[in-house]
Design a protein that fits this description.
It is a single chain. By secondary structure, this protein is mostly helical. 62% of the residues lie in helices and 8% in strands. The chain has a two-stranded antiparallel ribbon. Helix 1 runs parallel beside helix 3 (69-93). The radius of gyration is 19 Å and the shape is elongated. 25% of the residues are buried.
Amino acid sequence: MQLTAPARRTTGAKGTTRTARRTGIHDTDGMAVAAFVLGLLGLLVLNVFLGPIAIALASVALWRGTARRGRALLGLGLGVADLLVLAVFMSADNTMSWSL
């Protein structure tokens, strides 16, 4: 399984050969999937940490133009839902955390 694009050889200004990698699209797809998984997991545990991480990953993936736009939008929505669930349970318990 290859996570990055294959290396391409390019010649520099003085005739030197260097290797260039194109990893942008694959990285953003991974970010979109990670945002979705962390947002979904954040609904159950550690939503104060996983929610903002899911929001950040989804935002970066959308900003870089991921091919998995729907997955990134779901990750963004789930990250926001994590924080909303935390706020609702905190206000119901009158504490800084929540438990079942």
